[in-house]
Design brief:
The chain has seven helices and no strands. The chain is mainly alpha-helical.
């Protein structure tokens, strides 16, 4: 019996965390991403985001190419995109000197809210990229980057208002 390690699947599922929950794998992936974010030194968070985005896009594409059934262009167990979104939020919080556990927790909540809701133009971008087989992997990653941008925008506004009022 030959045991084959599927590296793209391991990376796309963020080391298997996408398989922990069948009902909410994105939330579990974002939670594990938040834990990793807390453990990552602040000056490495942005470079980690870039690596996660690049590796995530490549892993999703390689998994899609080797999968016998690539009709599902965004399988639920692929959660590296959620981790990438969490790290983008953490990188921007660090840029504004707001890197703290409470802010990372709010980042997690707002990110999941916008990732699930998918307000304009997130849903449009996701659908347009995923309808083409050549750009489906980019669509998987980019919708979470946009959700992270929405989340961090709201969070920076809240932090600014709180700072002014207190």
């Amino acid at each position: 019996m030959i045991f084959r390690i599927n590296i793209p699947l391991i990376l796309a599922s963020f080391f298997g965390t996408g398989f922990i929950s069948k009902k909410m794998p994105g939330t579990v992936g974002a939670l594990f991403g938040s834990l990793c974010l807390i453990l990552t030194p602040t000056h490495y968070v942005f470079i980690s985001f870039i690596i996660l985005f690049t590796v995530g896009t490549l892993a999703c594409e390689l998994y899609r190419l080797q999968s016998e059934d690539c009709l599902d262009r965004d399988p639920k167990f692929i959660v590296i995109d959620e981790v990438c979104g969490i790290f983008l939020g953490g990188a921007i919080l660090g840029l504004f000197n707001h890197a703290s556990i409470p802010n990372f927790m709010l980042n997690f909540i707002l990110f999941r809210f916008f990732d699930i809701l998918k307000p304009f133009p997130i849903k449009n971008v996701e659908d347009r990229l995923k309808e083409n087989v050549k750009t489906a992997s980019l669509g998987i990653m980019l919708d979470d980057v946009l959700a992270a941008i929405y989340a961090i925008f709201i969070q920076i506004i809240c932090i600014t208002i709180y700072t002014v009022l207190c």
